[in-house]
Specification:
By secondary structure, the chain is of the alpha/beta class. It is 45% helix and 16% strand. A hairpin with a 2-residue loop joins strand 9 and strand 10. It is globular and about 70 Å long. It starts with 14 loop residues before the first strand and ends with a helix. The structure holds coenzyme A and magnesium ion.
Length: 303
Amino acid sequence: MNRTSRHHPLRLRRSLLSVPAGNARALAKSAGLDCDAVIFDLEDSVLPERKAEAREALAAHFSALDRSGAREHVIRINAPSGPDGAADLDLALACRPDAVLLPKVSTPQEVLAIADWFSEAGTDDGPRLWAMIETAAALLNLAAIAEAGRTRGSRLDCFVVGLNDLRKETGIADIPGRPFLVPLLLQVIVAARASGLDVIDSVFNDFSDTDGLEAECRQGRLMGFDGKMLIHPAQIAAANDAYGVGEAEAAEALAIVAAFGAPENAGKGVVSLRGRMVEKLHAEQAERVLARADLINERKKKS
Ligand code: COA
Ligand code: MG
């Protein structure tokens, strides 16, 4: 595989809604929402004394869940080494979510150990593993953790940034525009891409602030994220929009692909389009944009 090629296969991960597994109303509501993934949370949104109850609710929810659509169903477990780790892993084995999201990953070994556990349990084709990047140690070990995604059988295919924990541990301020976090976020993105992983921006806590959310979605998209983790249904539309394909973007992509397809440009690696240089790599990027647009349209038709 080309080390710098992205996303295998292409998946839409614009909007990933976290749903506390202990909240029956939220669980019920989640089935009908227009997000690309649902992350059923057993970790920080569930009190320690309610964990067992939340696992039971989640098992019941999965047994009745419609898995026919393209949406991914993910379970965020508690620390595998902690008091709920074993029970959460057993639940994940029984539910077979598309992915298990590991909290507070700080080393590649933590990912590989869980991948081995699932393999030893006899599951070869799932679940995938996603890693929350939300500790200072993870930021120091980013490349090594991402590289686990290249290890045969590691199952890792996505990073999800967790800024609430990262701010708590580091003391970095929560300021609109995230001035002191952007350099770190870019490192997470670069590490993910170097190993072919998807990478998802952190939650925006103030779910009543639509303008703030839209601005942060736009910022995340410009930085290169694939989508945003969300905490409330009211946030889904903004993430789908910001991480979707706009009309102008699709038109531009079509023009680039058409320019390379034109007979007069046959065999050329670089062409001129409206006074701009366009290289073959831009045509590949444009094809990716169009493939994403197709996926989004398919999803719209189905819902
Ligand atoms: N997933 C699914 N449904 C949700 C939801 C979520 N994350 N958050 C809210 N809803 C539902 C509510 O149950 C309610 O449904 P109803 O119309 O059937 O009553 C509706 O959306 C409106 O909710 P609202 O009253 O505006 O919010 P709330 O006060 O019930 O909940 C939070 C606010 C923040 C407590 C809640 O959104 C939440 O728990 N979010 C996720 C937190 C989380 O997962 N944290 C860990 C990751 S950071
Ligand atoms: Mg966290």
